[in-house]
Amino acid sequence: MLGDLYATSISNPGFNWACGPACTELEAVVMDWAVRLFGLADHFLNSSEIGGGVIQTTASDSALVAIVAARSRYTTQRPSTKLEDLVIYTTTQTHSLGVKAGLVLGLKYRVLEVTAQDQFALRGETLRKALEEDRSRGKHPFVLVGTVGTTSSGAIDHLDEIGEVLKEYPSIWLHVDAAWAGVALACPEYREVAQLDNINQHADSFCTNFHKWGLVNFDASTLWVRNRKHLTDALDVTPEFLRTKQGDAGTVIDYRNWHLSLGRRFRSLKIWFVLRSYGVDGLRDYIRKGVELNQHFASLVRTSRDFSLVTEPSFALSVFRLSPALHLSLSSAQAEEALNELNRAYYSRLSSRPDIVLTQTVLNGTFCIRFAVGAARTTQMHVDRAWDVLREEAGVALKEWRVKDLQDKEKA
Hints:
- The chain is of the alpha/beta class and 412 residues long.
- It folds into two domains: 2-266, Type I PLP-dependent aspartate aminotransferase-like (Major domain) (Aspartate Aminotransferase, domain 2), CATH 3.40.640; 280-411, Aspartate Aminotransferase, domain 1, CATH 3.90.1150.
- It contains 13 helices and eleven strands.
- It has helices spanning 2-10, 21-38, 59-77, 97-105, 124-136, 159-166, 196-202, 210-213, 228-235, 245-249, 268-302, 332-351, 380-411, and strands at 52-56, 86-91, 108-112, 140-147, 173-177, 205-209, 221-225, 307-309, 317-322, 359-363, 366-372.
- The strands form two sheets. The protein has a seven-stranded mixed sheet with strand order 1-7-6-5-4-2-3, with helices on both faces. Strands 8-9-11-10 form a four-stranded antiparallel sheet.
- A hairpin with a 2-residue loop joins strand 10 and strand 11.
- The radius of gyration is 24 Å and the shape is globular.
- Belongs to the group II decarboxylase family.
- Its cofactor is pyridoxal 5'-phosphate.
- One of its GO terms (cellular component) is cytoplasm.
- This is Aromatic-L-amino-acid decarboxylase.
- Keywords: Decarboxylase, Lyase, Pyridoxal phosphate.
């Protein structure tokens, strides 16, 4: 907050190096710090002068910028390609950013199916089949938005399999959206499950938000690209009134060519404040605490007769629902609909309370509830209190549901 206060008081437009050297230089430094913090490859460093990082507003903006760069690269390599034949790939679990980018750019998009059996993660074979189908129809898939930590369930796409498939299609851009889960890369023990090696090996761009699980207030979405030239080739517009001797010499970064807007806020200052205040160890401790508290919550769900986890816990996120024993005469479809009705009523009760805030989602037709740990001061006491609230409201919801069920049977 103090970093944002200082940045706002300066009111630096930051559109090129000349009008705000500190704004530009600190951003380049902070983004390189984050590369080291997360274990990202050297080609993502600003100091590499190959790729580099830039702070965007949100993951949606990061994805849009990456897709603009991907489109530019693809059409440059294949100049005869018609824009109406370009296709953006996402999955049913990808954040809405992928579809929204298609709407903004006027491009087609295809949503690939993922299954509960695969924990809602994209597999390589699903991608390969879609590519073969679209190519045979004259379509040009040019970018895939993969995810590390989907919003609904925390699913992690199989980037190893995806990367192997895309080796056969080198013109297709892989953007990895790790908006909330990506900060877990700060902890070495989470890097394997968060697909760090595959991000480094296969991703053309990678995004995570410090404002989600990185102790930084909104907005601070960090985007890295493997090759900055693809970004600047797509977005570099430099009229005479923006020319400077430093920019023309190519000795500095002009970040206006790395995103959509011209002016930009001094976002790096608040990230610098957090990293300097907490340090690497402090940030890691905070992330580990969130994961541990979520594991504690998941253990409470597992030991209850009336609750179940819909997916395996993912970092600081658990997805659960009420799942009491149902009448044996119900078909599987009837049972699923009955459980959905129960959980909607249950969630409605929870939403009316002032002491707990949870969100809903639907996974393959299953209505469920998300429990996410993220606040810096959350302790096990808060998780236990939340569990008490969940059980309290569950008791009321189950009683009402069983009474209604009995009444329905009597009518039948």
